[in-house]
UniProtKB/TrEMBL annotation:
Its cofactor is pyridoxal 5'-phosphate. SUPFAM superfamilies: PLP-dependent transferases. It comes from Phaedon cochleariae (Mustard beetle). One of its GO terms (molecular function) is aromatic-L-amino-acid decarboxylase activity. This is Aromatic-L-amino-acid decarboxylase. The modification N6-(pyridoxal phosphate)lysine is found at K303. PANTHER family: 3,4-DIHYDROXYPHENYLACETALDEHYDE SYNTHASE, GROUP II PYRIDOXAL-5-PHOSPHATE DECARBOXYLASE. It comes from the Eukaryota. Belongs to the group II decarboxylase family.
């Protein structure tokens, strides 16, 4: 393909994406294909001779589009948001177009240098303590990683490095393998699956401690676990606190957990994968009070900050522990710029690096701080509106509501809510997933798409109501409302209302 054809293909692809977004609201959120559908649509062998780009684009429409789940449909309410914006899409396009791999500073100075500046911008946007920033005097700094899962794992490896070194310095007779076999990590049972996985990958038992009724890990639970483990000869090494848990968007209290970790010399990592974006708005920063006690902090602009996947921001107070854990030298990778620019390959698992800072830059530059704040506030308002709608219907109960996530259920046995979820997802008009709150089966409703508006929340609520109607008919709802009213203030009932109750009863 020559550059002229590339121009045509590229422009047609951009048009295709724009058309897709203009029609996304009308598409059922979930696809109707069955497992294995795609294998039947493609030949078993690769084509012997090349085909035209027009054919390829037609195949996308015929084969790929029917198998897409429309994550950016305004009626997609599952999981947490995955970010999307046109500036970020163009950033990805240019990054692929340049096609460099930033494995060292000299491999493309702009890659490293833009990332340094973007991580400072982003840190300032969230009002993180200065010591985390690349522009601070100290050894702290920020880097873009691929995912929160990766970051939690990298934090664990750095914590291990720090703990082993410290103990061996104190007692040179200790063997590294003996120390490593005794290290233990902690998080709450509300933490994301990736936290448990980090423990598995890093060969460090991750104790999932019971959260309280609000979904938080309390100081007393953590202290008790540390005490037990120390009594059993284990070495507490790593705590993952969560700001915005996956099940209910609960916030651990860093002011409670932080001092314990600092006193016990345990690495404190903060996983704010989803909710971290909200700290761009000053009114939510009270939820990250105590962040100064942490050793590493992470949030995903690729969740709620309009930067397409992948873009996971990680800051550490002292990058030395990352570099010491990951620094492997080779003659062809000589660090020529020590101290002047970070060699980010020593801060991460892979050698090669994508130019993720470009899409982040485009989003920050084109939306500006105000645009990002507006986006977050709008989505929180929509979730509040949904909460209000649910709260108005006595057949339902709101279980939790935090940021852009509401969990709710039909009153009564869990099976009612399970049925509702199955019915709604079968119809594919909206997409919600199951969760658990305080031991009960709930439906999670997250405001995900940047396209979601009040009318979409109304649509989704109507869809839920229409299916709930088949499980708990609103006849019961009227009865509840009337009987409730009677029990609170029966004298306020008009004659007409009394007559209505009598008629209902006699049916
Ligand atoms: C609190 C929390 N942590 C971590 C993750 C994992 O994020 P990633 O897909 O970037 O690894 C999620 C995903 O939803 C999450 O909600």
């Amino acid at each position: 393909m020559d550059s002229q054809e590339f121009r045509e293909f590229g422009k047609a692809a951009v048009d295709y994406i724009a058309d897709y977004f203009e029609t996304i609201r009308e598409r059922p959120v979930l696809p109707s294909v069955k497992p294995g559908y795609l294998g039947d649509l493609l030949p078993k062998e690769p084509p012997q001779t090349g085909e035209s780009w027009q054919d390829v684009l037609q195949d996308v429409d015929r084969i790929i589009m029917p198998g897409l789940t429309h994550w950016h449909s305004p009626r997609f309410h599952a999981y947490y948001p995955t970010a999307h914006s046109f500036p970020a899409v163009v950033g990805e396009m240019l990054s692929a177009g340049f096609g460099c791999v930033g494995l060292s500073w000299i491999a493309s100075p702009a890659y490293t240098e833009l990332e340094v500046v973007m991580m400072n911008w982003l840190g300032k946007l969230l009002d993180l303590p200065e010591e985390f920033l690349n522009c601070s005097e100290g050894p702290g700094g920020g880097i873009i990683q691929g995912s929160a899962s990766e970051v939690t794992f990298i934090g664990l490896l750095a914590a291990k490095e720090k703990k082993v070194k410290a103990l061996m310095e104190l007692n040179p007779d200790l063997k590294e393998s003996d120390i490593k076999g005794k290290l233990v990590a902690y998080a709450s049972d509300q933490s994301n699956s990736s936290v448990e996985k980090a423990g598995l990958l890093g060969s460090m038992p991750m104790r999932l401690l019971p959260a309280n009724a609000e979904g938080k890990l309390t100081a007393s639970t953590l202290l008790e676990a540390i005490r037990q483990d120390k009594n059993n000869g284990l070495i507490p090494c790593y705590v993952v606190a969560c700001l915005g848990t996956t099940p209910t968007c609960a916030f651990d209290d860093l002011e409670e957990l932080g001092p314990i970790c600092n006193k016990e010399e345990i690495w404190l990592h903060v996983d704010a994968a989803y909710a971290g974006s909200a700290f761009a708005c000053p009114e939510y920063r009270y939820l990250m009070k105590g962040v100064e006690f942490s050793d590493s902090f992470n949030f995903n602009p690729h969740k709620w900050m309009l930067v397409n996947f992948d873009c996971s921001a990680m800051w550490v107070k002292n990058a030395k522990y990352l570099v010491e854990a990951f620094n492997v030298q080779r003659i062809y990778l000589k660090d020529q710029h020590k101290g002047l620019a970070p060699e980010y390959r020593h801060w991460q698992i892979s050698l090669g690096r994508r130019f993720r800072a470009l899409k982040l830059w485009f989003v920050l530059k084109i939306y500006g701080v105000e645009g990002i704040q507006k986006h977050i506030r709008h989505q929180v308002d929509l979730a509040k509106y949904f909460e209000e709608l649910v709260g108005r219907d006595k057949r339902f109960e709101v279980c939790t509501s935090s940021m852009g996530l509401v969990t709710f259920r039909l009153r009564g046995n869990d099976s009612l809510t399970q049925q509702l979820l199955e019915k709604v997802d079968d119809r594919k008009h909206i997409f919600v997933v199951a969760g658990r709150s305080d031991g009960k089966f709930v439906i999670r409703f997250a405001v995900c798409s940047r396209l979601t508006e009040k009318r979409d929340v109304d649509f989704s609520w109507e869809e839920l109501l229409s299916q709930a109607e088949e499980i708990v008919p609103s006849k019961n709802k009227i009865n509840t409302e009337l009987s409730d009213k009677r029990s609170i203030a029966s004298i306020e009932l008009t004659d007409a209302a009394r007559e209505k109750i009598r008629m209902e009863k006699s049916k």
